[in-house]
Structures are given as C-alpha cells and as structure tokens.
Design goal:
The structure is a homodimer.
Chain A lengths: L2 H9 L6 H12 L5 H14 L3 H12 L15 E5 L8 H10 L4 E5 L9 H5 L11 H11 L1 E5 L6 H12 L6 H12 L6 E8 L8 H17 L3 E8 L7 E2 L1 H12 L5 H17 L6 H13 L2 H12 L18 E6 L4 E6 L1 H13 L13 E4 L6 E2 L4 E7 L5 H11 E4 L9 E5 L1
Parallel strand pairs in A: 1-4, 2-3, 4-5
Antiparallel strand pairs in A: 5-13, 6-9, 7-11, 8-10, 8-12, 9-11
Helix pairs in contact in A: 1-3, 2-4, 4-9, 4-10, 5-12, 5-14, 9-10, 12-13, 15-16
Chain lengths: ~425, ~425
C-alpha cells in the first residue's frame, strides 16, 4: 500500500477501505507518512467527503494510535459529555460534578477555546492553582476519589488526532464534517466510557451555524458511537444568543458556582440539569429520563453538585475557597456599561459577534498560540425576549487591556437589536437524536 | 497574506488574485511556506481547477522563481518545441538540428521519461559520452557555436516548478490540466524564446488520451504563451500507435539518424519536418508555412540537419562517429521475434501497452529514481494499416534483462490486433491550434 494511491483514490471520490485508512493513520502517527501527504489527503477528504464506514474507520484508527483508558476497576457507569462549542457555554463545570454526585463516573478530557468560542480548560484555569495537565495516572486517582476529573488532552490520548488537527489548522481543512466527527470521537472513545451525551450547538454562535449541518454532525457522531460500542445521545441546542449571563473565563466560573448553589440564570441551569440527567439515564442509573431529571434536581438542591465541584477543585490543586467566596476569582480593573438606545424588547444578541468581542477584550484566542486574560469578559443584563428601557444598561464589560476596546464595544453596540414587540420564544433544546 | 487563507479561498472555488499566487509561489520557493501547505493547495487546485488568469499567474511566478535566459546576443529567432510525451516520440533529435540548420536558435531544455513514455534526455544519453547536464554558460556556448543545444533542466531554471513537481508526484496531484500547463510553460518561458511549437499527443499512448483534454491543455498553453509574449502553435498529433519503428533509447537514436540521412519511417520523418517547419515559420524566417516546409526539406536532403546533429553531439561531449556508424550505439545481447498468429491487416497496436512493455524490458522507468538500459527496446516491422502474413514477424524485441521478459512479451502479443480488412487511415496531425 502506497500513501499516494490512497490519496488518489480519495481524490477520485472512491471509498477507502478500513485497511487503507488504518495503515495511513498508523503510518502517519509513527512519522512514516509525511505531513504533505496527510495534507493532500485531508484536502481530498474535505472536498470529496467520507462515508459513515470511512469515518468510523478513521475514528477507530486515531483512537488506537494511543492509549485507551480502562476504568473498569472504578465502580459505576463511565459517561462523558461533549459540546461542539459556543459562547458562554459553561455547562461542563456544572453537569460533571452534578452527574458524579448522582453516581456517574465522569472522565472529562476537554480542550481550549479558539476564535469566538470558549474552552473548558481556559475556564477551569481561571481558578487559582487549578491544574488541568494531569497524567493519566493522576486522572485515574482523581476519578477514584471523587468520581469526576476535568483535564486536558494528554500526549497518550489519540496522538494521530493531535498531529492531524494541528495540520488541518494550517491547511484550511478544519471545517470538514467527517474530520470533525472523527477528531471529537477519537478522543472521547479513548476515555473508556460506555455512554456519551453530545451537546451540538446550532445557530449564529455555533461552530456549524446551520441546523442541517449540526444535525448531520450529530448523526455522524452517533453512528461512530454505535460502531464502537458506545451509547450516544445528541441534543441540538440553541446558540443564537450566548448561554447565561457571564461570558469570559472567571465570569463563567462564577456563574457555574451560582447555578451549583441553586441560583444563576435559568437557561444555564436548565441545560446543565438536562445534560446531566441524560448522562444519568444513559449510564443506566435511572430507567426513565424523568426519574434521572428528578435525581439530578435533588443533587443540585442538596448542594451535592457544589460539594463535588469543591472536591475536584481541591484534588486538582485549585483553591476550593472560590466555591464560597467567588470574589477570590480574578477580577478586571475596569467596568464599562453599555446602555440601550431605545426602549422595547431585545430581539437579537448576535452571538458570533458577541463571542468575537469577548475575544478582542482578551478572554479568547485569535490563534492557537495566543494568551488569554481570565478576568475579562461581559455580564449580560438583558437577554433575548427581555424588556428594556431607553438608557438602561444591557451589559457590563469587564476590561483590562484597552488596545482593542473600541473595536469590541462597537461590535457589541451593533450586536443588540431592540424591537417594539417581543420575539417568538425559542426552545433551548431544539432536537434530540439517538 | 496568510498561506492558509489562500488555500481556503481555492478550496471554496474562488479565483485567486495574481498577487496571492505570486506571494504563495515565491514564499514556497524560498522555503517560507512548507510542503504541507503547498500539497493542500495543489489538491484544492486539482479538484477546483484554475482560471486562465490564475494559470498564467502561476506560470509567471514559477518562471520568475529562477533565471530567465537572455539570448539576445545570439543572432536569429529563438524557438523551441515541446511534446507532451508518447511512445517512440523521438522528433526532438531530428527537428532541433534541422531547424538550427535553417537559421533557428533552439535552446532545448528537456526532461526524462517516466512510466510508458520516453524522455529526450534518456535517448541522448544512449550516445556514448553525451552530456546533458550542462550549465547555463555551457548551454549558451553550445548555442553560439551550432545554434542548437539539447540539455536537462538546471537548478537555476524554475526552481519552484521543480519543487512543486516533486511534491505533486507523491500527493496524487499530477494529472491537473492547469498544473501541467503551468509546469511545462514555466520552464519553456525561462528559455528566453520568442516562439514555441507544441506537439500535444492524443490517443491511447498519450499522457492525456482524450482528445478534448489534449485540446484543452493545448489551449491553456497557448493562452499562457499569449500572456507572456511568446507565439505558440500547438499540433494535436496521433498517439494511437507508437511513432516510427524504433522504440527504446539507442534504437530511437538510430532511427533519428536514418531520418537525418533522408531515410527512416515516413511518420517520424513527416512529423519531424512538419514541426521543424512550424518552428521556422513561427520564428519568422519564412512568411509562408509552405516555404518553411520547403526550406526544411532542402536542409534535410542536403544533409545539413545531420551535420548540425553531428556538431551538437561533438560539442556536448558525445562520440560523433555514431552519426555515420550507428553500430557504435549500445546494442542488446538478445533479439526475440514475435510472429503474427493470423493473416490480415494490422488494425491496432495498443500504444500504452507497448510503452509499458518497453519499460518492462528496461528501457523506461517505473519510478522517478529508476535506472534504464539504453540498448533495449523494440523494432516494429508492422504498423497500423500494414498487411501481415500468418507467422510473419511483426516486431523484434531487443533484450538484456530477462526478469520481466515474459510479462513484456505477453503484453506485446495482446497489443497487436489483426483483422481481415485495413482500418481507415488516420491523419498523424489531427488539429492545429494557435
């Protein structure tokens, strides 16, 4: 088997065999196939697509390029959640300890933010001392002690994906549905989980704004899960506006603590509880979804989720006092309020634009090697559907670096739309696919 | 300008600007853009195509990545010929000295053979002592002394094309019409010529068998020539059967010498004279094509072409005695005759299959780093349209290495088709495009 023949077959729109894909990926992973051949194949896949069988084979090959966790010695169902990313999408920090408090084991391996979307690792690292760069041994130890671990990708997990992802980033081959699905699932399938809940964002602020694309991505990942013996449920959820009110790393952690205390914005709370309930149900701890929702609700009300979060923060080197004193989280020097220029109802908060403004304030990265400021971001006082008076503040920007402030504030002023009547209500969970 | 943005635009089917192409090629040529980004762009070009303006910009950028010859101090029109390659396609060795004998200056930079097609450099190097690896200074000196030089690509000529071509070979991006056209023309346009005659082969043994593809390639190269101030005429010529009778490097040189002596197979002679006449005409030495043909005919009959060939062989280090004693060319140890199994007329000599058989005998390369045997090949006793008796030899194989002999002979036996009646006559020059 020659690499150039595999590239040629995909170039011509033919279906690659699992053997061809296995060999290409394993040889690429060992450095026997150079980046330029992988780049040509990635572009051919981008433009020609991949069948479900090819996508499955690619996922399996990338998973098997590294270690696959065996968590069988830890009692309880192993279930994770993955989100395709959005603005203010902070549910992991709530649902992971909540699900753990209900008996689910959650070995959550997350990523960093890029562009207008945030990343779980960045949010966690706004907690003073919190370490996400655990070894697989440390991950196991944290899991054994509190049922949840929140870590970054280690070099042992799907190294072929790591190498291919870096290559796709510089060869304009990121936005390929089969490559996205295989990349996500190869890492998740290495976690040793038996079930996975997917939060596939759709709408303006999502990675894939179009609902049909989001649905296709969800289906591709469900198919991969089925092929690899993992139960998968996907929720298509709304990202036409940011989730919750706090946007930016420390501000999002603060909101998560509010929710874990039984407070916080209703959309963040509702989605976190729903996703946690899906994990409990899919993990087999409750036979009905309704019972799973009630169980998660009780864990939230009883403070068990917050207790788990405090424990995991402590185990991963973070300062657990932030759980009761959120004022210990990083805070920006300045606050700037933006005010509504007319009265009416908020009909739109252009989500991608808001995400970009947060990035310009320093909360996100424009390129993979950018640095972030944990303290900065936004607090939304108004969300879509809320009434607003003329001159009323609709958001507060938390600011340190003012170099791109004007650009960010200009984007934010244009992101808000106000009309005379309220917009039609939009459900947060649009569809469920299994 | 970021390389990834250029790749993305081409990936999405947009037209790249000349500035984008210039920058990409010049940065690639300087090693500032890595092979993996060039590979991704090449695959995007393969699948999305390039407009004439993009192809022109690519050609210009690759030409300008190296030196462009200035031959203005040598008197006479500078004209070259390029063939897209075929089986037994040996006209360069005849027409170059013939055109030079008529007053054209021919700075011919050629390539090597690959797969079923032969290469001019390989044929020349079957002449004992003949050197094709001349420096640009030596090329100029030979041109000044005899009006024709027959050399290989130097490192100074279109280095970006050299690097990109090697990359395309291993990334399944060779057979792209705009990339082929730009690659050929970038080298030819660096020769400092004012006119170019193209011999675009079509039919079974051609690089592009389909006539529509060949026509499109011809048109793309004519358009590039127009954009870069070079007069270009393209002849679409038949490659349904090999050209001439001698196939294989020394056997082809021997046939060229026959033609230059006024003998040799009529198809090789006719095509060589026609192409040389086009060069004389396009170079402005005769105002009518008919007068150019007569001038070339006189040069041939007067032995002036042979004299020029003898001179260039001598100047490039070769043994000029081969011109009068072709027995001094390399000869194989063994001869094997293949005989017709029925009587009738030859209706087909499957050209690509014959080319492959010659390669298997050792006359060609399967991969770019393969070695060749100058002595081996075939002599065809029968060509399409010829009557044949049962048991009559239709070809003689000239053999040294017998390792793949059976495979080659099997292919050759199947390549011949005999029918009761003669096939319709097919013209050698199918179309002329300017």
């Amino acid at each position: 088997l020659r690499a150039v023949d595999v590239i040629e077959r995909k170039r011509d729109g033919l279906e690659l065999s699992p053997e061809e894909i296995d060999l290409f990926v394993s040889r690429y992973s060992r450095g026997e196939i150079p980046d330029y051949q992988a780049a040509a194949l990635a572009m051919a896949v981008f433009l020609r697509g991949m069948s479900p069988a090819e996508t499955l084979a690619l996922t399996r090959a990338m998973r098997d390029s590294g270690e696959v966790l065996d968590l069988s010695t830890i009692p309880g169902p192993k279930v994770d959640k993955h989100s395709t990313g959005g603005v203010g999408d902070k549910t992991s920090l709530i649902l992971a300890p909540l699900a753990a408090a209900c008996g689910v084991v959650v070995p959550m391996i997350s990523g960093r933010g890029l562009g207008h979307t945030g990343g779980t690792l960045d949010k966690l690292e706004s907690i003073p001392g919190f370490r996400t760069d655990l070894t697989l041994g440390q991950l196991r130890s944290v899991l054994e002690q509190c049922g949840v671990a929140l870590v970054g990708q280690t070099p042992e997990i799907a190294p072929a994906d790591r190498r291919l992802y870096a290559l796709r980033d510089v060869t304009a081959t990121v936005e390929s549905l089969p490559l996205i699905a295989a990349s996500i699932m190869s890492k998740k399938m290495a976690e040793g989980i038996s079930a996975l809940v997917l939060d596939v964002k759709t709408g303006d602020g999502a990675f894939l704004p179009d609902a049909a694309d989001a649905r296709a991505l969800a289906q591709a990942m469900i198919d991969i899960g089925r092929g690899l013996g993992c139960r998968v449920t996907a929720l298509l959820t709304d990202m036409e506006q940011p989730l919750g009110r706090g946007l930016g790393n420390a501000l999002e952690v603060a909101e998560c603590l509010e929710v874990l205390r039984g407070e916080g914005p209703p959309d963040t709370r509702a989605l976190s509880v729903e996703l946690a309930a899906r994990m409990v149900h899919l993990g087999g701890l409750e036979t009905s979804l309704e019972a799973a929702r009630e169980r998660v609700g009780r864990a939230l009300e009883g403070g068990h989720g917050l207790a788990r979060f405090r424990r995991v923060v402590e185990l991963q080197g973070g300062d657990p006092r932030i759980c009761d004193e959120p004022g210990r989280l990083p805070r920006s020097r300045d606050r700037i309020e933006l005010r509504a220029e007319r009265r009416g109802f908020v009909t739109r908060l252009a989500c991608r634009a808001v995400g970009r403004a947060i990035m310009l304030l320093g909360a996100g990265r424009e390129t993979v090697d950018g640095t972030i400021d944990a303290a900065v971001g936004l607090v939304l006082h108004k969300k879509v559907g809320d009434p607003v008076e003329m001159g009323e503040p609709f958001l507060t920007a938390h600011v340190n670096d003012r170099r791109r402030l004007d650009e960010a504030l200009g984007i934010l002023a244009s992101a808000l739309e106000i009309d005379e009547g309220p917009p039609p209500a939009a459900p947060l969970v649009r569809e469920v696919a299994t």
